[in-house]
Amino acid sequence: MCDDDDDCCCGFGWKGVAVGVVVFIGCLLTVILVPMSLKTVEFDEIAVDYNKVTRSIDQTPLEEGLHDVGPAGKLIKFKTTQQVGQIDDLETLTADSIEVELDVIVLYSIERQEVFEIIDKFGDQDAHDAFIRQVCENTIRQVAQGFTAKQFYLQRHDFQLTLIRVLTQLLTDVRAHAKVDSVQVVSVDLPPRVLSAMEASILAEQDIQNAEAERITQLQAASIALALANSEARLVQIAAERDVALTQQEALQAVLSERATMQARTDAFRNVSTELGYGGEFFLDSYLKYLVAVNNAGDTIFGV
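== Prohibitin ==
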């Protein structure tokens, strides 16, 4: 009886151990597999679930949060925030075949609605970023060849604006699934001998411009002085013409007054001669005597 009981006890003990082992293994697998199945997508990311066993991609993009993708799942993540493309010490040639070294920062963002196209063409973000960088470097070299060394020295902003315009259009044309947010040309390094020559040239041009400005100022001053002299001469001429006109007017008035006086005298003598019954000879003789007497101020003697 005891042996049977012992056998039963012994049998139950082995079964319990087996169940415990299974439970332990299950718990262990749960502890291992659950963390492997849960993946986190950060607030600045978008992800796609890729199954490593079936080698298939889930067609639903995953946004921020914790997602259960299973043990065979792998998240292919892309940053949705602005990315910084730092291109340092890029050597290229200017339009006048002078070597220039550029540091450029390109800020860009992916087109998040085209994430599946990005995966199809590039696989992941690292490959996509490498492609964007290559396009940027080629574009910088291409645009740089349209600017001379002097334009780089004096008109860096024009180069930057042209680079933004060309790069934006090119990323669209090659379907890079990204857009340019900003481009900043950080530095432009020209050979020292070229810088020295340009500085000397600029100083010479400034001297020429200063001399030209001084000459223009002198010409303006001379023109103003000439205009003032002409104005003063014209004023003198106007005053002289006015005086001549006044003199002529006064002379005309004097002539008219004298004519009126002589006419009045003539009329008076004629009237007197007519009333006295004398003829024209008497009138003429008397009038002439009167005129002679008036002009000689009483020094004339008649009838001697």
